[in-house]
Amino acid sequence: MEGKWMSSQSQSTNFHLLAKIKEFTRSIVTDLSNGQSPVILIHRFRNHCTSPNSNCFCGFNLPCGKDVLTLCRESHVHRIDVMLRVLLIVQKLLQENRHCSKRDIYYMHPSVFSDQSVVDHAINDICVLMQCSRHNLNVVSAGKGLVMGWIRFFEGKRLFDCISSPNKVHPIPVHVEEVKDIISVAHYILVVEKESVFERLANDQFCSANHCIVITGRGYPDIPTRRFLRLLVEDLHLPAYCLVDCDPYGFDILTTYRFGSMQMAYDTKHLRVPEIQWLGAYPSDAERYFIPKQCLLSLTAEDKRKLEAMLLRCYLQRDVPQWRLELKMMLEKGVKFEIEALSVHALSFLSMSYLPSKIQGKMII
User: Has this prediction a pTM greater than 0.85?
Assistant: First the structure.
């Protein structure tokens, strides 16, 4: 755990959260003092459903039910115990203006928590109860996202100067709430699924040639990466494009950026980037860019199950029907391919031909 420079806005948020925690714990103590079991209501959220009714309200910050926790039910006792232990740790973090990771919290009571997922669940419960985001609790993720390109900003008092060397790789700040004074002369933001593609673009001097910002979450994006991308899109008003593998997992990563994740559906409004567009790779790109059959992989049974489940997601039909058509095409053709398959033409085909043709030709959905 470490201390951290804190803005006046952060101080105000801490003050209000500590007041909420105090009121919540006081109500529990009062119930116990009166010989009553506390009743804790935790709303449930979702960012999508599989209902054929396109008029659903998933992802619009409305709860879709609630869990009613009470000490009278044995199955709830451990969940409440864990939540209160984590809440005590969070209270201390806020009081001392310190930060820690979810993993740090797990190791404070490993015999009680038993598994990291138990801590993760408790943190989500606390966020819902306190109506806040995880970073407001001073619980941070171990950052894994990377950025390069035509941008300069401060995180607190630390300067990130990407503009002086646009193809140099920088870590995405963990404390995104402290990012300020953003300056950019970029034309757009490109989000790529994985580090290997990010490094390919860096080696090809892609940012220098195309005046853009490139970001990767190195697979499924962590919270800082998603928050940082949202901040840039809101602050700079730049178009944002996403490049992922043409497979079910690449598509799932794409939807995580645009629509959020089910695990953190309660915080969808702060994490999703509804402006992001799908640049590729599409199933239809296999024919358009003459990808040889030996570069195409057959979908596994698990791939097909995942595709069938994703096709039912309400936001595809409601918001991006063209995405759904491409996904359906992938299932019908029964094949997938990685972004790197484009290198069959030339090592720099991705940066010199594919991406420019997509962006300049507006072949983006």
Answer: yes
Asked whether residue 193 is domain-assigned, the answer is yes
Q: Which of 107, 188, 220, 249 is flagged as catalytic?
A: 107
Residues 246-298 pLDDT 10s: 999 999 999 999 999 998 999 998 999 999 999 999 999 999 999 999 999 99
Question: For the domain that residue 85 is a member of, what is the CATH number?
Answer: 1.10.10
- List helix spans (H) across 39-155: 74-96, 102-106, 110-113, 116-130
User: Are residues 47 and 268 in contact, defined by beta-carbon separation less than 8 angstroms?
Assistant: yes
Cα angle vertex 253, ends 247, 256, to 5°? 145
What is the spatial distance between Cα 216 and Cα 145, in angstroms, rounded to a whole number?
6
Print the domain residue range for 15.
3-136
Q: Does residue 141 belong to any structural domain of this protein?
A: no
Is 354 a catalytic site residue?
no
Listed residues 77, 111, 136: the one ending a domain: 136
Domain termination residue (choose one: 136, 171, 201): 136
Predicted confidence at residue 9, as pLDDT, reads 61
Angle at 203 between CA 251 and CA 237, to 5 degrees: 55
Q: Is residue 103 part of a domain?
A: yes
Amino acid letter, 350: L
**Among candidate residues 266, 271, 270, 237, the one with its CA nearest the CA of residue 256:** 271
Token couple for 55: 């008029």
On the question of pLDDT at 169 being above 70, the answer is yes
